Amino acid sequence: MRLLFLAVLRPHTGNAVTAQRIRDHLEAAGHVCVLKDALDYDSRSEVAELIRAAEVEAALALHAYRAGRLLRGHGIPFGIVFGGTDLNEDVTQGEKQRVMGGVLAEARFAVAFTETMKAAAGLQWPHAKDKIYVQTQGIATSPSTAFRWDTFLQRVEISPRAGDAHVFLLICGLRQVKDPLYLVDAFSEWHRQEPDVYLVIVGPEVDPVFTREVKVKLKSSAGVRLAREMPQGDLHAALRHCVALVNSSVSEGMSAAILEAMELEVPVLARNIPGNAAVVRHGATGLLFSDPQKKTESWLVWLSGLSAGL
After folding, report:
1. Which of 170, 161, 164 is closest to 226 using CA atoms?
2. Please, which residues have CB within 8 angstroms of residue 295's CB and are 6 or more apart in sequence?
3. ∠79-276-269 over CA atoms, to 5°?
4. Rg of the chain over CA atoms, in angstroms?
5. For residue 132, what are the β-bridge partners?
6. Residue 158 CB-density burial (10 A; 0-12 exposed, 13-18 middle, 19+ buried)
7. Which of 160, 175, 272, 308 makes an SS bond possible with 207, Cβ 3.0 to 4.6 Å?
8. pTM here?
9. DSSP letters spanning 112-129
């Protein structure tokens, strides 16, 4: 079958990685998958022309609003994959919620990564709950053998004494929903107490306004560094050197970075939100936190214990 696959393909973002993995799976199953960036199309008429030109028989959308809305009314069967922000953020905006309801009414099926996401979608759109299925994400990691940790540390201006830096990585695009500033004050306080502890935020500058806010904040935040996006293989190699992966998002569907860290046997420290709690079992497969702003001694001891145990 020849399929059109619409997704938001900002480089080095979780959506782009997920879309590429789904495309690879579909092609391995013998289908032709025409992957296109939903942000390149402003209207359904443009997508109608794409459907004619690409001669596709069916379609798939990753994100019910950003991509799914473009597939309505074309006369070809389509399904959607919930991304996370569609269920956690966009449903609070009346018009977007209505549009996604129309998308689901027309879609042949919808895929949620977790039971929690399926339940949330069923509450929002009861008419569609019988066509929503749960399929957890598959992931693959490929650490680069050419990656050099010492070079990475130099690039982010970390000069540890005798190589004893304890680096936590927060991997995300710089946008508000990822909330990379949530832990900055707590890590700065920890760094002042233990100078070998660092938080490094790695990811693309998705939102220019918010990126400026992050850079201003980090200028006065000891022990916190910012690194631009990295090739996937280098990112996986860096994960293997860090103390833990950190996730501080306001909302997640299913974080690819968390899954990749687990695959690489790297500890995970994640904000206690539904998308993360569906993957991380506190004290078993990772640690969940709720309020680092309290900066209590017990919270610092908790993190220190994680570091010391590696």
Report:
1. 170
2. 185, 186, 189
3. 145
4. 21
5. 110
6. middle
7. 175
8. 0.76
9. ESSHHHHHHHHHH-GGGG
